[in-house]
Fold this sequence. Notes:
4% helix, 6 strands, 90 residues, 4-stranded antiparallel beta sheet, two-stranded antiparallel sheet
Amino acid sequence: MLAIKKESGEVLWQTNLDGGFGNSFVSLATDGALVLAHTRGSLFCMDAASGQLLWKNDLPGLGYGLASICANPGQSDSPPELPAHLTAGS
C-alpha cells in the first residue's frame, strides 16, 4: 500500500501489508490521523503521515473475503457517538 501526494503524484510512503490467504484487494478508511486497511483476512492500522504500522489484527474466525470498514473523524480513543434519533427513548 502507498500514499500519494494528490497535487503531484509523488509517493509519500509505502508499506507492505502481509496478510493471510484470499483476495489481495485492499479496503481502506482514514480518520485523517490513522489509516485502516483490510486485505487477505487481516486488519492493519497505520499512521497516516508516515505509513508506520501501529498494529495488526488477523481477525481469527472471520474468513478471508472483502471487508467494509469505517473510520470516524476525531479522537481515536473516543467512543463512537450515535445520532440522537438512534438513541432517543433508550
